[in-house]
Structure prediction request, 279 residues.
Amino acid sequence: SAASDVYKRQPLWVPATVVFAATLSGLTDALLGRGDHCHVGGGVHHHLCVLHPPAITNHPLAWFIIAATLTPAAWVVARAALRAHERWRLSRALIRSSRPSELGGDVRLLEQDEPVALTVGVFRPVVLLSTGLIDMVSARTLRIVLTHERAHVRRRDTTWALLDQVTAALLPRPIRGALLGDLVLARERACDAVAASAEGDVHVAAALVQVARMGLSEPACGVSIGASSIEARVLHLLEGPARGSSWPGWPMACVLALAVAGVGPAHAWIEQAIALLIH
Prediction:
């Protein structure tokens, strides 16, 4: 898929940035001619020690680097939070413009001819259906749509969707779009599975095709049965999930062995090696 291609093309700077951020404190103090944070256990060494407690440096350069790193990130997250708040206000306006229905206390109706089926609300999510959609679909399809949307309510997917959009704002645009797209698809498949357990895979797949023909668009707020790829979801229902190749056990064993060695007998050797490289 396109999302998988994006992940495969992730540049080296993604993990390199994470490693650099993790070692930034130690590198700063090393360049200033001081130790890292570890002054216990026989001397000063330049790495992030997992055995000894950290100490805070008050050098102006260290604080400047921290501020220069965190300020842009905080600005990006704040803008994303503001957009999430606007979506929350839009969902409240939609709820206020709807009316109660006979389909249950968690379902409200919108008086409009265009087909609408979505779940909105953060603290008390509800299902919104338009009268146009109810007139267009059969009784079975309506049950499937309601089961799907109620699964979103139980899973509190509207809340998680907003949090995803805020936290993903720190990622580069191509990776952010691919990641959020995968999360939306995963949520829709989970709710499709809930509906399929009650109505059957074939009937849910047929309902999704009917929803696609009605032209339900992805909502500006909330989550909807019409979101994400209908084709991928139908194939998932009818053919089952694609089986990927499993990872062999030896890479995990190597990682575990290195971790044990790093915090165990090789701890002092690693400290001395890093100190020699820096000096």
